[in-house]
Design brief:
This protein has 460 residues and is an all-alpha fold. The protein has two domains: 195 residues, no CATH class; 199 residues, no CATH class. The protein is 82% helix and 0% strand. It is built from 19 helices and no strands. Helix 10 runs antiparallel to helix 19, helix 14 packs antiparallel against helix 17 and helix 18 runs antiparallel to helix 19. The chain is globular. It starts with a helix and ends with a helix.
């Protein structure tokens, strides 16, 4: 049996015709829409069951720091250099090498997940025990452990799901991960429905960790059975994995600086005298980023696969054409959807949030703040798009200095605007920062494409 016969056949988006990207994205849309709806519904359920106040603020601050840390893990594997590197290994049509790289990738992801989870829980426990105790219902060591131990278990499960998702994305199998994540979200919501009255906000991380575990297991089963990748876990370091490590290191450093912004934003919100300011910012951001999430889940995974192949083929002209078309369409989509949400924000927010523990005054506060959160949707979507374009070109070296620029502008904006506008000023700072980063990313992309064309023109 030849190597070509051993390699399972999968449907992979082809880079040539630009419309093919949107046909593949359309095929993904039902699954991604389901995941987006469920992910968007979960914060609304949290608002209904837990309201907003001191306990929810304390939880969201803790969760915000945790998500910042583990987002670096997830970002290292999905929509990252994993796609072009594994695509290159697969193109050599050596299944044994591919399987070894995939197994080592997941093995090291689990090691990183356990290390990050344990470190986060230990540091947070020390901080909350001896430096700044949490408010009720977290008073005492036992409630704090009930809050932090699930976070420690959540991290390796998330790393497992993200690494398998990265392998599936590189193979063009883009449906499995969103469907698995959607089922995991359903489980989390069901667990919270059953236990929120008994345990309060302490139940949230346990329920979400359980959902992450289900998503990871379902994605692994798909990779093993449908894709035929044996997934023999190891801690080997093949050359392809070392190359991937060098590329991902730059991406993670940049993401570490950039993704600290939500934590910084929440810290500034916590300084506002109004109780529930952190929760207000969280709920409005969750609603405002729904259109961006749809584009991120349905279009961007296909786009990264296609752009990676165009970059490998040296077709800078088509690469530029695909990117510019995506910029126009993503901008139009986020602006139109954001405008509709702005027009119907009052009945929409009352229908979504005015339940359970949410008071009418709390909902009115969300209605006033939402337009400021919506202003961030278009620049944030374009930022995510352009980052993937640079990732496809292997231009990861810019991520760390760009992350420093991003964090510095956001910190400056927060410190100034929060004094005049409160939570609204923090949201305005975020939108302004993302707009500045988009401009820089676009200019750097044009320069990189020009530099890549010069050698090609010199060798007709």
């Amino acid at each position: 049996m030849t190597a070509e016969a051993e390699e399972p056949k999968v449907e992979v988006p082809q880079p040539a015709p630009t419309p093919a990207i949107y046909r593949h994205a359309a095929k993904l849309l039902p699954a991604q829409a389901l995941k987006s709806v469920l992910d968007a519904a979960l914060p609304f359920l949290l608002a209904t069951w837990f309201g907003k106040g001191g306990a929810s603020d304390a939880f969201f601050l803790t969760q915000g720091l945790f998500l910042f840390v583990v987002s670096l893990l997830a970002g290292a594997f999905q929509d990252s250099a994993v796609v072009p590197v594994l695509s290159e290994v697969r193109s050599r049509k050596t299944p044994k090498e591919y399987d070894a790289v995939a197994g080592a990738l997941v093995g090291w992801a689990l090691v990183a997940g356990f290390a990050v989870g344990a470190l986060f829980a230990a540091v947070a426990f020390g901080w909350f025990s001896w430096v700044r105790p949490l408010p009720a219902p977290f008073t005492g060591p036992r409630p704090v452990l009930m809050l932090l131990v699930p976070f420690a278990l959540w991290a390796p499960l998330l790393a497992l799901r993200a690494s398998i998702g990265g392998i599936l994305q590189a193979r063009g199998a883009l449906l499995a991960t969103p469907l698995a994540s959607a089922l995991g979200t359903v489980l989390s919501a069901a667990l919270l429905f059953g236990f929120h009255q008994r345990f309060g906000v302490v139940a949230i991380p346990s329920a979400q960790a359980a959902g992450e575990g289900v998503a990871a297991l379902l994605a692994a089963r798909y990779l093993l059975t449908t894709e035929g990748v044996p997934l023999r876990l190891s801690l080997a370091r093949p050359e392809a994995l070392r190359k991937l490590g060098r590329l991902v290191a730059s991406e993670v450093l940049g993401a570490a600086v950039t993704r600290i912004n939500p934590v910084v934003d929440q810290a500034f919100a916590a300084t506002i005298a109004a109780v529930g300011a952190v929760s207000t910012m969280r709920y409005t951001n969750d609603l405002a980023t729904v259109p961006t999430s749809v584009a991120q889940l349905a279009l961007f995974p296909v786009l990264l696969v296609v752009l990676s192949r165009l970059a490998a083929e040296g077709d800078e002209r088509t690469f530029s054409k695909v990117v510019h078309k995506a910029i126009v369409q993503v901008s139009a989509f986020t602006i139109v959807v954001g405008g509709v949400v702005w027009l119907v924000r009052r009945p929409l927010l009352r229908a979504v949030f005015f339940h359970g523990s949410m008071t009418e005054l709390a909902v009115e506060d969300l209605i006033e703040v939402l337009p400021w959160a919506l202003a961030n949707a278009p620049p944030f979507a374009l930022l995510l798009l352009l980052v993937r374009a640079h990732t496809a070109l292997g231009n990861s070296r810019i991520m760390f200095p760009l992350g420093v620029f991003n964090a510095a502008v956001n910190l400056l904006g927060d410190s100034i605007l929060v004094r005049f506008f409160g939570v609204r000023g923090i949201l305005l700072s975020t939108a302004t920062t993302h707009t500045a980063v988009v401009v820089v990313l676009y200019l750097l992309l044009q320069r990189t494409l020009r530099e890549r064309r010069v050698p090609a023109q010199g060798h007709p």
